[in-house]
Amino acid sequence: MNEKRDVEGLYNRYRQVPLYLIGMFCLMTVFMYFVGIGAGVIATIFTAVYGAVSIVVFLRMNALSRDRYVEFAMEHGKMQKELIKEFPVPYALLDEDGKVVWVNDEFSGITETSKRKLMKLNIVQVFEEVTEESLPYQEDVTEGEIAFNGREYRYEIRRVQVNKVEPVMEETDAQPDEAGTDGDGSAEQKKEAKASHGGSRHHGKTDTFLAFYMFDVTVVNQLTQENHDQKLVAGLIYIDNYDEIFESLEEVRHSLLVALVDRKINKYMANVDAIVKSLEKDKYMFVMPQKYLDQLKENKFALLDEVKAINIGNDLPLTLSISLGTDYKSFIENFEAARSAMELALGRGGDQAVIKSADRITYFGGKSQGTEKSTRVKARVKTLAFKELLETKEKVIIMAHKNPDMDAFGSGIGIYKMVTALGKTAHIVVNEVSSAISPIYGNFTSSNSYPADMIINNDQALSLVDDDTVVVVTDVNNPTLTECEELLAYAKSIVVFDHHRQTKDVIANATLSYIEPFASSACEMIAEMLQYMDEKIKLRPTEADAMYAGILIDTDNFLSKTGVRTFEAAAFLKRSGADVMRVRKMFRTDIETYRQKAEGVSHAEMVLDAFAISIITPGDGPESPVVLTAKIANEMLNIAGVRASFVIAQMGADVKISARAIDDVNVQIIMERMGGGGHANIAAAQFENAKAEDIKKELVGLLNEMYKEGDI
């Protein structure tokens, strides 16, 4: 309405220009009288004629032009209405509540409903996808998508402000409500209202409507989907235990096993229109269209189980690792993502598929415990690489995860010994001494054999780090779980030694990374590396005790995740001076902790006759709640029929789950679904501002779901 008034005002001023010129001519006439009487008379006559003609023309043209203007406006409005009515885009006008006020022919045709019936309905009754929340109460425009009668539409709802003129009644003495104060308002208020409108008989009022229009995007969506489906997905297939399988198999059957694996892989990939190419004896690359990716997800990469079923006399089952890269801008990026996903799959122990897309990482499989690597080639290579790196630096800062356990501290001691044997300066970052390491921690802080700055805190570590420093991370590969995550940002050289399966959150830009999920503990890995150092490193008994204790705690007294290399590492530490009885005495439990452990076991409930779940509220005592939950979980594995145990501890406002497994159950994949992690036999998860009972219900539901799907 305001825009219309501006146009009318501009038009009126344009028509009044000749009248304004009359005044200018009058001023000119006065000036001409000063020039001469004759000139003044002539100017007067000219001005009079011009004024008379201008006024007559203005009065006659004013009425005529107004008629033409009104006629044009009516024709213009009629034309707009006809255009909107016959417009090929479905269009509807709604009130603020979404009730249909008016629709055009296309809208009525698409909905196959008459205009009269539509105007009795609300838009939310016409389209299920449109809800009351979709209406733009706050925003000016809202958008969404609709699937209707086999077609797909994108809709927009736009707020429209309409100004209209409504008559206002004049005040008269005959109206008692206006004369007195018994009506809707006082007489003074009504006079003020009238005055505010300038005494006009009309005033403006604003109405709000919603313009609803739809665009058919069926073909666009089909082409977009087709383009998406035809994109190429890059993938890799690695045989995890190729060497171990062939070592245990008769030589005459080697070619037969290779042929069977090739046949399984090619037949499986042929079902998804993939091209497979063998890169090496145990490595394959494949390319497939994006549209078949959902098919692979649906059958959960059945190739993993099909290959494991191959048995021609091999003692160990053959396992594969599969990786795929998808949803990146180019095929090269997809291939790089597949390579990165393969590193992640192998770092998690193999026997699984990992899909890495632009925004997420998805895991499939990983149910088996994995095969222990009998060869130590990797340990020797990593040791030599670590030694070469140390020779170029002067300082080493060692750190593990927050609230370090015995494996974290013991492996840190092993690395400290390795570094100092090369004549380099080393420090271990420990911020909090928990009950998990306190029995042996004092052997290093109270001894004169070690420098006072052997163990430092975060602030000291940050002040020491420079370009000539190597930061060594042990027993953890997730940066957020380290003692000092900020230290990783300052360090130019980072080394990672860990035995936990990798997750998507890994320490980036590591100069050297040695992650061996088949190892029982980080102490086992470091004990092997110590034996490959050229220098004859002689461990002190306290150092050997610390590393032996790390293996002992992580394997639950050599009961879980223990292989040949575990016992070989323990034997090396025993020869170095570790005393089994001394270590056992250090880690005996006090009576109060033992009571709490027994109480936690007594509260255990069985789920699916295979999983023991207990809820505890750790009390005051020398044992940390984290260690207590782990001990209870280990203890519950001694119950007959228990394949995995879960202890849920309410620690203030937070909740922690400690999970352990003794059978073929992989507790890592269970904890990952709950936001945690770990490795096949030992895993955990933590929740902030949660209730133990709620977490238990979530865990029970997850176990039932995974059991039905065959994932556990």
UniProtKB/TrEMBL annotation:
InterPro entries, per database record: DDH_dom, DHH_sf, DHHA1_dom, GdpP/PdeA, Oligoribo/pAp-PDE_c-di-AMP_PDE, PAS
Keywords: Membrane, Transmembrane, Transmembrane helix
SUPFAM superfamilies registered for this protein in UniProt: DHH phosphoesterases (SSF64182)
Keyword Signal assigned: no
Disordered: region residues: 167-203
Transmembrane segments: 41-59
Domain DDH: 395-551
Residue spans of biased composition, Acidic residues class: 168-181
Domain (DHHA1) ranges: 630-699
Protein name per the record: DHH family phosphoesterase
UniProt organism field: Coprococcus aceti
